[in-house]
Design brief:
The protein has 10 helices and no strands. It is mainly α and 290 residues long. The protein has 3 domains: 136 residues; 35 residues; 101 residues. The protein is rod-shaped, with a radius of gyration of 50 Å. It starts with a helix and ends with a helix.
Length: 290
């Protein structure tokens, strides 16, 4: 029976120590939170956490009072300290603008720290009277616990950072592939200039050929004119038919060449217009086909 009682009492002490330390941790976090953490979700969570730990402390203090013969002097002080911490818990759960401002200024954390230290001292005093020993609650313990939590957060941030780096690397590779495709398939001025030069060459050669056809056609027509007003022999008639047929073919060839020249001139005009537009565009506009 005594062993069970001692075990239960030790467990109660551990729970109480944890409760005090958690309230201290909350006080430290509230002291250093700043404007980025002093938001409603953070304040409400801290308020509910403190309220839960206050309930644990109330139960423990009731147990201590039962072990004390008579009414302990610390009872009033313990009650005041608990009520003060509970009041802060209620304010945190409301998380109004005034509380947020006090949190940002650090006053809320300092106030809570003072109250929890006073509560710890009063609890220790009562324990000393009952058990003849005290439990130490120091800022170092709380800071070490906060450091442990921060270490976990830093590891999580590092893992997230590595993941983001991988995503960024993949994104860069995709961008490079897209850029390479757009760049190598982008129509360049050199390509348009080549088309313009080809059109000009084709036009010049067609014009030269058309000129030769015109010269040949002129010669043939002069020969045909020689047969006019003459009595034509059979041989003359055959030659005249041959000359007319040749003249007809030359006229047809000349029309084809002129049509080809017109087509090439249209292509040349379009390419020259395209070249002018390309020269007015930026590299990015050319790359994106805009």
């Amino acid at each position: 029976m005594n062993a069970e009682f001692i075990t239960g009492r030790n467990r109660s002490l551990r729970d109480t120590d944890d409760a005090l330390n958690e309230i201290k941790d909350n006080a430290i976090m509230l002291s250093i939170a700043g404007k980025y953490l002093c938001k409603s979700p953070f304040l409400k969570k801290a308020g509910f956490n403190i309220a839960q730990n206050v309930a644990v402390l109330e139960n423990h203090i009731e147990d201590l009072k039962k072990q004390f013969v008579g009414k302990p002097d610390e009872e009033t002080r313990l009650k005041d300290h608990l009520e003060g911490i509970a009041d802060i818990s209620d304010l945190l759960k409301k998380a109004d603008n005034g509380i947020k401002r006090k949190c940002i200024e650090g006053a809320l954390g300092r106030d809570l720290s003072e109250k929890v230290i006073s509560l710890a001292n009063a609890t220790n005093a009562l324990r000393e009277k009952i058990q003849g020993r005290s439990v130490s609650y120091t800022w170092i313990d709380s800071l070490l616990r906060i450091a442990s939590r921060l270490k976990f957060i830093m590891r999580a941030i590092a893992a997230l950072y590595k993941f983001c780096l991988k995503i960024l690397g993949l994104f860069i590779i995709i961008c490079l592939m897209a850029f390479s495709y757009l760049f190598f398939t982008m129509e360049k001025e050199k390509d348009v200039l080549t088309k313009i030069a080809a059109s000009k060459t084709h036009i010049r050669s067609s014009q030269d050929l058309s000129l030769r056809i015109s010269e040949d056609l002129t010669k043939i027509r002069k020969r045909i004119d020689l047969f006019r007003g003459k009595d034509l022999t059979r041989r003359d008639q055959m030659e005249l038919v041959y000359l007319n047929l040749k003249a007809y073919n030359l006229v047809e060839d000349q029309e084809k060449k002129e049509a080809a020249i017109n087509i090439q001139e249209e292509i040349l005009g379009e390419n020259e217009k395209k070249l002018e537009e390309m020269r007015q565009k930026s590299f990015l506009e050319k790359l994106l086909r805009r």
